[in-house]
Amino acid sequence: MTEKRTRRRVLLAAGATAALAGCIGGGSDGSDSDGADTNGGDGSDTPAEWQSVTLTDATTDEEFSIAEVDQPVVLHTFATWCSTCRRQQGSLADAYDRNGDEVTFVDVTIDENDDPDDLRSHAEENGFGWRFAVAPAEMTRGLVDQFGQRVAVAPQSPVILICPDGSTTELDKGVSASEIESALDENCR
């Protein structure tokens, strides 16, 4: 007798596959067990390709890439409609106020419905003074390849530290300003 394929069974099977993938040969997110990644995610000493993708700051229209920044970067993936993301941005604002001259803060939307005008309005309405950009598809793919699908789910609101050498560290959801600063001191300074 053939077993009926329900959505639940498919999801359970997918979850089991993902769990097994995590058990065989380490994490599937390109990092070691504590979330730290010592390189660009490909086993080399060079930054991941997504770090070289050209972004446009929605607040200034300036073009830049993460790889061009010569100081630590705090990268946050988000969507303008996401309340979890706004809470995380409150912590980013505190960290930015204390470290904005020594660290570059970048919020990239992974929601294809957000556009630069949405980002500009979001930053202005909330008093955020750091960079905001729309993540091009190739950047989102690169982030997902390195950190897993979670990075492209706005309510997960991940924060990633990128050191000037291109090494990365993914922080837990809901990270505080002091936790961001500690991670920067431990990994990039």
From TrEMBL:
<feature type="domain" description="Thioredoxin">
    <location>
        <begin position="44"/>
        <end position="189"/>
    </location>
</feature>
<dbReference type="InterPro" id="IPR036249">
    <property type="entry name" value="Thioredoxin-like_sf"/>
</dbReference>
<dbReference type="InterPro" id="IPR013766">
    <property type="entry name" value="Thioredoxin_domain"/>
</dbReference>
<feature type="region of interest" description="Disordered">
    <location>
        <begin position="24"/>
        <end position="49"/>
    </location>
</feature>
<dbReference type="InterPro" id="IPR006311">
    <property type="entry name" value="TAT_signal"/>
</dbReference>
<dbReference type="Pfam" id="PF00085">
    <property type="entry name" value="Thioredoxin"/>
</dbReference>
<protein>
    <submittedName>
        <fullName>Thioredoxin</fullName>
    </submittedName>
</protein>
